[in-house]
Design brief:
homodimer; about 220 residues; mainly alpha; Arc Repressor Mutant, subunit A; 2 domains; about 70% helix; about 0% strand; elongated
């Protein structure tokens, strides 16, 4: 058991080092040697957990959509908003999430399949929006898959713009504005009036999640 | 005159080479030597036009918002749509535009100010949306600057997602869906009914522009 925990810690150390190197160099220019030096682990330890540079990158990429369970709500549209605003808050505060998002936006990273986070976030959105549709929260013409894709794609750009302009300082303000620009096109007016789209929503949801005891895995 | 044209051609050769190298290597890893070798020009010729790697990158970055004059329309919202859909069409068809957009999304490019395209596209949007507002096309609560930023930022993400998932094949479909998701939240219903948001719009606008004689500069 202690050994298993040590393995988990080592894996995390390697991922943190990989995240740092990918962020500093970009995927294309980063090397496993640099990641090894940064992590301070043996080659054997690294290859026990990750088989290649791409494998390391996939590890960093998938950190951004881990640990994102948000509390259940009567309105499934509010759950979508909560997931989006929580992600914005984590981007502002968690370097690992930041590194994962940057990698998924690294258009010069050839030979790296960056579709995973887009598809996984898309699936979170589709599932919630299908529930929203079946309980009458969406306008009749809305296709949950298309709307989920629009939310995921536009979020990706808004975060990139916020990073380029001010290192994420205005991210939650921008994401709140994004929600106000997309949801009225997709959600019934009665549901719209009940939504909390304010910029503090992500931090509030995180606090709520941390205060709630998690089920044992 | 012939000399001036030669200089313009050389500058374009260098920019094309820089675009290719930045796209292959990412900004951080690219070097001036690689760009020199790709362009096949002398060091003197390169430094006559560009002072540094950042200067070359700014040249590539600004190519994406050049030559984007769209025809004047009665509806200024339609002009915004035309600019957006034309940009999507150019991204699908013009490697230089593609390289500029990728650079502006390269989050590992430290020491490169990538804010230019976001700000310039934002200004195009603000100007048109202010005109739209003053002639009553927008809903009363809409702030043209905020809406322009949302359109620019979300476009940036939609193109990145389309590139990651299918190398831009579905870009115009996705951008058309984006317009259908943002504009109903910002534009009066009467104007909405007059808009052409279909995916073929960008190609049609480009054909229209090419068929119209340009004013002599």
């Amino acid at each position: 058991m202690a050994e298993q925990q040590r393995a988990i810690r080592t894996r995390q150390t390697i991922l943190t080092a990989a995240a740092k190197i990918f962020e500093e160099r970009g995927y294309q220019a980063a090397t496993i040697s640099q990641i090894l030096a940064e992590a301070g682990v043996t080659k054997g330890a690294l290859y026990f957990h990750f088989q290649s540079k791409e494998d390391l990158a996939q590890g960093v990429l998938s950190e951004q959509d881990q640990h994102v369970t948000t509390p259940s709500r009567t309105s499934k549209v509010q759950e979508v908003v909560d997931a989006v605003m929580l992600h914005a808050h984590r981007l502002q505060t968690d370097p690992m999430v930041r590194a994962g998002v940057r990698l998924s936006m690294d258009q010069s990273a050839r030979n790296l399949d960056r579709s995973g986070p887009f598809l996984r976030w898309g699936n979170v959105g589709i599932t919630l929006l299908q529930q929203a549709k079946s309980q009458g929260e969406l306008l009749p013409h809305i296709d949950p898959a298309e709307t989920a894709d629009i939310i995921v794609g536009s979020f990706a750009g808004i975060q990139s713009m916020s990073q380029a302009l001010c290192e994420y300082r205005d991210l939650t303000t921008r994401v709140s504005a994004l929600m106000r620009h997309i949801l009225p096109s997709a959600v019934t007016p009665a549901v719209l009036t009940t939504l909390d789209l304010t910029e503090g929503r992500g931090a509030a949801v995180q606090a709520e999640t941390l205060a709630t005891p998690q089920p044992v895995q």
